[in-house]
Amino acid sequence: MLNTEAIRILVLAVLFAPVALAALVGLAGRSGYRSARRLASLGALVHLGLTAALAVPAVYVLIDRSESEEAYGHRAANSFQPIFVPGDPSGELGSYETAWNLFPVAKAPADLPPPAIQFFLGIDGLNIWLVLLTSILTYVAVLVSHGSIRERAAGYYAWLFLLQAAILGAFLSFDIVLFYIFFELTLIPAFFLIGCWGTGGGRRDAARKFFLYTLLGSLFTLVGIFGIVLTNPTPVSQTNPDKTHYTVVLDAKGQPHYPKAGPVTFSIPKLMRNVAVWNHFHEIAIRGAELKKVAAAKGLEKARSGREPIAIPLAEDDVAKAEREWQTAKADREHYKSLQYWLFFALIAGFVVKVPLVPFHTWLPAAYSEAPPAVALLFSGVLAKLGTLGLVRIVLPLCPDMAVQQGLPVFGFLGALGIVYAAFCAFAQRDLKLFAAYSSVSHLGLLVLGTFTLTAEGLTGAALHMVNHGLTAGAMFALVGFLAERYRTTDMNQFGGLIGRFPIYAFWMFVICLASVGLPGLNNFIGEMLILSALFSPEATAPVGYGLGIAAASGIFLSAWYTMTMLRKVFFGPLLLPPTPTDVEPRDVRPHEWVAFGLPALLCLALGIFPQPVIQSMKSDVNIIVRQTDDARDRANDAKSAAK
After folding, report:
1. Residue 60 or residue 150, greater confidence
2. What is the DSSP string of 79-116?
3. DSSP secondary structure code for residue 405 in this structure
C-alpha cells in the first residue's frame, strides 16, 4: 500500500531541494572550488536519489491507471488528472486538486469557490519522466563542470541548482500562472550562467540576447494565458449554482439548458473542462436556435392557412425573433472562435522560441557557442523541453480547435523546415558546440511535427522523444565538454584521429551518435518511428498531404549524414591535436567522466530495448489530449458539412 502523503512530501522535496543545495553550495563552497565541487556532486546525487524514489511509485500508479482503462474499456478523462498532489483536500489519490491558494484574484458568490492562483503541483505521465531527466542531466552537468569551472565555482553551482529548481517547478505545475512564473524564472539563472561563466568574449551579449528574445516571446504567452482564462470561466448551472463545470444538455422538448459564466480558474485541468463545455455550448446554442426557427416557421405556415388573420403577425414576430436568436448564436460562436485564433498564436509564441523552432531560433547560435558545455547541456536537454511540454500541456488542450486548424499547416510546416534547415546548418559547422546545437534543433523539429499530428501515435512518439532527445542531446554536449576542458577549443578542424588517442572517449561518442541518428536498439528509434507512422497516417495528414512525412524521413537520413561526417573528421585519419593550455598531457576518460558519459548512454540502450514502461505510463494522458482534439476535429467537420 502506497503512503500517499509521504509521496506528496517527496514531490515538494524534489522541487525545493535544489534551492537548499544552491544556498548550501553558495555559502559552504566559498573555501575553494574543490569543496564547492564536492558539495555540488553529492547534492546532485542525493537529489537524483529523491527523484528516483518519487518516480518508482508514480510510474507504478500511472501504468496501473492505463492498464485499468484498457482492461475495463474506460473512456479517457476530459482533463489531466495529476496524482500525488500536495495540499489535496480529500487526502485521497484520486482527488486531482489542491487547496493551497497562493492569493485570490477576485471575489465570488458565497456558494462558489473564489478564483485564486494556486500552488498546484502534481505528477502525471507527461512530466514524471521529464522530472527524472532533469535530475539525471543536472548530475551529469555537475560532473562535466569538474575540470572547467574553477573561478567562482560556488556561485556557478548555486545558479545551476536554481536553474534546475525553476525547470522542475514548470514541469510539476498544474496551475497555468504558476507554470508561467517558473517558466520565466529559468531566464535569471540562465542569464548569469552564460554571462558570467561563458567561454568567449561575446558571452555578455549572448546572455542579453537570449534573455530579451525569450522574454519577448514569453510576454505574448502571458497575454494568451490571461485571454484563455478570461474567455473560459467556470460554467455554472442556471438552476443549480452549486453545480460547476456544467455540461450543456437538452430537456425533454429538445431545448438546451444554457450555463452561465462563473468565476475564472487558473487550474489547467479545470480550464480544459471549461474549454470543452463552452465549445459545446456554442454548438448547442446554434442547434437550439435552429429548432426554434423550424418551430416558428411551422407556426407561421399554420397561421397563414388558418382562419384567424390576427395570429399571422404574432407568428411573424416569432419567426423574426427566432432568426435574430439564431444570428446571435452564430455571431457568438464566431466571436469565440476568432478570439481563440488570436489567443492560440499568442499562447504558442513563447513556447516556439524556447524550443527553439525555426525561424525563432536566432538567439541560439550565440547562446550555445558562448555557454559552458554543462550549461548548453541543460539548455538542450531539459530547458528546450519547457517549450515542447508547453505545447502538449497548455496549447493543445486549451486551444484544441485552433490546434486542429492551424497546428499542422503552420507549425508542422515550420517543424519540417527546421528539420532540413538545421540539418544543413549542422553539417556546415566547424564548432562542435554549434554542431550539437543545430542537430538538437533538427530533432526538435521532428518532435513538434509529431505533436501536431494530434494522433495517439504522434503524441506518444513526441512525448517519448522529449525524454530520448534530452538524453542524447545532453550526452552530446557532455562529450563536447571533454575536448573543451582539455584543449580550450571545440573547433573540429583542429582535431583528427582521436580514436587512437582517446579510445574510451571515442567509444562513448560513437554510442551517443548512433543513438542520435536513430539506430534500432537505441532510444531515438522508437520515438522517431512512432512520429513517422503518424505523419503517414491519412487521418493526420489530410490537411497537408505526405510532404511533412517526407521531410521528417529525410531529416533522419540527414542526421546520419552530418553525424557520420563529424565522426570521420574528428576521430579518423592522422592524429591532429591543438596545443594544450598546460604542460600536462591530457588523459582519456577520468572516473567521474565514466559516470557522466556512461549513465546517459546506458539509459539510451535501456530505452531502446525496453521503452514500454515509459509509453504505458503516459498513455492515459496522451489519450486525454487525443480526445480533446478529436472533439475539435469533429466540430470542424460538422461546420464544413453545414457550410455545404
Report:
1. 60
2. S---BS-TT-SS-STT------EEEE-S---TTSPPPE
3. I
| 3-state SS assignment for residue 491 | strand
Quote the cell numbers at residue 174.
498544474
- Phi/psi for 235 (5° steps) reads -70, 135
Strands (E), 247-362: 249-250, 256-257, 259-261
Q: How far, rounded to the nearest angstrom, does the alpha carbon of residue 581 sit from its chain's CA centroid? A: 41
Least confident span in 206-215, 261-270, 577-586: 577-586
- Mapped onto helix, strand or coil, the DSSP state of residue 130 is helix
Could you tell me what percentage of the chain is helix, strand and coil, using 3-state DSSP and rounding each to the nearest 5?
Answer: 70, 5, 25
In a domain, 168, yes or no: no
Number of domains in the chain: 2
Which one is predicted more confidently, 366 or 132? Answer: 132
Dig out the grid coordinates for 317 from the structure: 414576430
Higher-confidence position of 180 and 87: 180
492: alpha, beta or left, given left = phi > 0 and alpha = psi -120 to 50?
Answer: alpha
Q: Provide the residue range defining the domain that includes 411.
A: 406-629
Q: Examine the pLDDT at 297 and tell me if it is beyond 90.
A: no
Helix (H) or strand (E) holding 341: helix 311-354
Same domain for 499 and 616, yes or no, is: yes
pTM score of the predicted model = 0.92
